[in-house]
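User: Hello, can you help with two protein structures?

Assistant: Certainly.
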Amino acid sequence: MQLTALSTTQWGAVSVQAASRRPAAAAPPRPAAAAAAVLQQRQRPSAGSGSSGRGRLVVTAAVKVQKGKQMLCSKTMKAKEGHEEQLRQLCQGVADFSRQRIADRSAGVLAFELSEDDYEKGTFHFMELYTSQAAMADHNRHPEFTQFVDKVQEHLEGSIGMVLYEYTNGKIGPAGMEGAVKGEGGLDDATGTNKFGGGASMKQTSAVVDLTQIKEKDDEEKGLWGLKGVTFKLPDWMGGRKQ
């Protein structure tokens, strides 16, 4: 094989050409945007797109992710027919209040986003990110938020559904909280954690809180999320049975 010496200029040209042919190295992933960045809204496909799928990631806000574990919370509310506007205004009000608390680092609120479902009229979603479980409990106990929970009751078709996720270094973990929904068609089946689908060694850790079922006994413990006597259910939008 004949070797040909290349001048500095020729070698530079070859290096540039070779580099242009190599696939670009993937950029290191940025820290995920917080609550709104991970909210997968169900968007209508644009006209002429030829797509009938629902899933589309929509980033509506960017919040720098802190190292360590945070608590990601998703809440869903469905308005009674004719009560959509009242529920929308109440949701907007508490969302505005919650976003104002982001500036106060001691509050522990990192993000609070409100979205309206494009496919189910009158269905609203909160996606919230907190520095810790304690910060979420404190926010849920705030008078402004407890008043919101009281006011929305007359406008809701069913219960408020809530799912918690562990959010670690910008990555969402599986849904998890203390408490469980058992039985055929329940969360065990939905998450594959029953003894047949997930294996007998798998532990059920997922559940959904029904925020509207709050007992009023003063001696009752406040619970992990600042809510007294919460019960658990799987909301309709996750495949649960309607009440």
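That covers the first. Now for the second protein you mentioned:
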Amino acid sequence: MSENIELFCYVIGTPANDVFVIQIPSSRSIAHLKVSIRDKLKPRFDNIPANELLLWKVSIALDDNFQQNIDSHNFEDTESLLAVKRLSDLFPQPPNPEHVHIVVRRPQLVSAVPPAQVQNQINLRVTNNFVLDDEQYDEENPAAIHDGRYGTHRNTTLAPPLELYHPVFAEFKAHLNNPTLELPPDVVLNTMELMVATSEIKTLESERINVRGIVEKLCGLAIMKSENKDETKPDYIFPVTRNSPPIEVALVAVVEEKSELGVNGDPTVQASFSYIHYWADPSHQLLRTSSCCPSFIIGIAGPWVSICGGVLTGHPIVQRLTDYIWLGHSRIIDEAYTLRVAKIFYSLRLAAGSLYAYYLNSEFPLIKKSRIRFFPSITSYKVGVQTVRFEYLRPLEPEDADDKLIVVKFAERYGEQAHRLLAAEKLAPELLYFGPLTSPQEAVKYSYGNLYMVVMEYIEGCTVQQKFPTNTIPLELKKVVQKARECLSKASLVHGDLRKPNILIPKKGGIEGALIIDFDWAGEANKVRYPLHLSSAPGLWVDGVEPYGLIQAVHDDAMVDRL
């Protein structure tokens, strides 16, 4: 019976104090040692095949100079330990108990696509609200990131909230907003360690290797490198390898680091491009076409961190889930702030764990032209105790003539009272549901902020803007709109946007059956306000209408008169 050998191991890229010990029979091989190391580092190394770990035998004193000595070594792949080597041959005598004996490096992921081809690989295109199909993509039109930034052309880069496309982002927000969320001690201690580490002034990104190890511990996932053939690469990623079809490597999170904020650009922007480069690779085609490719995008610059999320629909959509958070350790009495930062990282760990499980365990349709990624993930609403489930068919455009049962929209505010009042008078489509996106039980896990879901019956027809784009509307039609306006006025309500695009002429019923739609701004007169971002196009509004101004009954009257 062979004796156990005790080996101190160190993973390249982690802090020096993360050295760990492996006890293993000396008769075992390096292949067995790799399995033991992977098992020791669960769950961070769950997605890493043990045989892909690279090991080197060293004898480096674990003292104050350890990190410097490690950094001075050049660990060549060709010099790594062979899997068949026996530990008894490598260590004929018990190794020094005050030294590190094995250095470990995780495998790198290599992408096959150079950045010049990235835009041609995405094959995505956006419409005003959602997306077009892959086949309608114009390859000469760059796939702009929809993050709210725009160039001189001022084409819109606004997009629906990320959490509509995948609930993991709503989960992240729910954890952030949960006042009873308990923080594990290791998260608090690792957060403190990160704050101290990022407070040190570093002039080179390569000097921030300890930060990466701490971020890895905070996220609870294993870091790997990803590289394109032209050698462009993100600083590091958190991947997950699927074990069932499609057998692909998904991206849970991508991280970019800068030595300081303002040096060599914004790391969140660079990380956004790294996110696109990763998912554009042909090796991710099946996952890309059967999901919206949700990933977390993390930028670190000196003592600052920002967490974003990304999805692929018609265009890449990237939105900030946090602002830039100060990580510097600058106050003697600072526990409350440290706990606040720890809560952010713990929320990220929990959500990233859910995303990891989503990619690992979900069944994805093995078809190349799936439409799943184009639509929100919300597919049901409640009517009393009954759950009504629905399937998205296509984005609703103004000229849409398809017969549909319902129309689903999402809004931060909605004039439910005004809509139901006019619907009761047959002056608006029936409102089937207005309320939160989740049940009270689910709201604990998923937070959609101020978003509400609106479900109404679908009425086939056209808008007044489509039928009478430049002409004055017929008197019969104007009388219907005036009747709707009077109903609202009697209840001290306003619509706020009684213009041609918001008056529907049904295919069945014609002008006399006209309906008012779009109650986003409706509510109590002189209490509800116009939105902050109101179009400034000349001639669009009546006198008195202004951004964030109170909506008055006289505005509705003036809009009806102008029809």
